[in-house]
Write a structure and sequence with these properties.
By secondary structure, the chain is mainly alpha-helical. It folds into three domains: about 130 residues, Ferritin (Up-down Bundle); about 160 residues, no CATH class; about 70 residues, no CATH class. The chain contains 15 helices and no strands. Helix 4 packs antiparallel against helix 5 and helix 7 runs parallel beside helix 15. The longest helix has about 45 residues. It is flat and about 75 Å long.
Amino acid sequence: MNPQLLEQVQTEVDTAFFYKRLSELTKDETMGKIFENLSKIEESHAAHMLEKIRKESPDFVLPAPSTKAKIQIKLGKVFGYDFILNDLTNTEKQIAKAAVRSKMNLGETPSGFETNHFQIMQEVSKNHSLPITGSIISKFEGRHKSIGGNALRAAVLGANDGLVSNMSLVMGVAGAAGVAGAAVPNSTILLTGIAGLLAGAISMALGEWLSVQSSRELHLKQIALEAEEIESSPEQEREELVLLYQAKGMDLQAAEALSHKVFENKDTALEAIIKEELNIDPDELGGSAWEAAIASFILFAFGAILPVIAFMFLSGNNAIVVSLSFSVVGLFAIGATTTLFTGKGVLFSGFRQVLFGLAAAAVTFAIGRLIGVSITG
């Protein structure tokens, strides 16, 4: 049986599953209908592929949604569902590319319909967010969130920062202690690891607090200025909104009509200016800087505690080996988690993360050994 076809049918099943679950979860009626219709279309695609497969294997049945897809939906309850929207957009993009490439290889001219689902999801991801709240972590913002685009990536990166930095720190001190662990007492290594955990977690928490609080204060200042401009020169602000609508593809007549409708009252005018001109999501202004700081502290500490645990009960080489073992398990888990939004294989992502983490630990261990040797003479 063609393994590529099996992979494609699983992708269609998972995509249909995502759309169906999102249609049930969203509180927006329009979005719900869009997701439901997309789910039905993906189900029909899966059924079409099933017919092809059954020509070779008559007893073949459609697979259930994959474990990965089910885990992603469960994680969405905690971290929010935006990362699933991003994943669906990327999936539709790959499917569209494959469809166009297939037609061109057959000498056919693409109709343009191949990219419809991708364009729909691109607009959904860009202009909508599912009105479904997650936990405290869904409000975790700051520099990590800007990298990954959602709270799940921020959580993974926060835990990874804690694990790799503290593992490197502990291995560096252990290296200075020597193989026998005689030069530096075990209690010193443990104290160093705990100090590194607290210092890193507090630093991360403070950084997130400052990031969220500064961002909110800046946005509130910008909003206040726009509110003042709407009060003093509403017609100029309306004309700016017309230009913004035109830049997004509206013709002049439609842009004028919509801007007049928006400026019927000050509240809708300010809301439109906030979204269109300032590109600010008002929902993000409600996030607590303290919640972001607490989440950052917990995530960093969660990763940073793994290399330290062994030194609470063991010493010398045994402690180093167990510490590395815990760290390897943690690194693999973090790498495996990234497959939820990269699409790479679990083993590939897990072992890649382990390799990078151990490389960092090896460097600091070697430096620690050199420093230890030079100090002891």
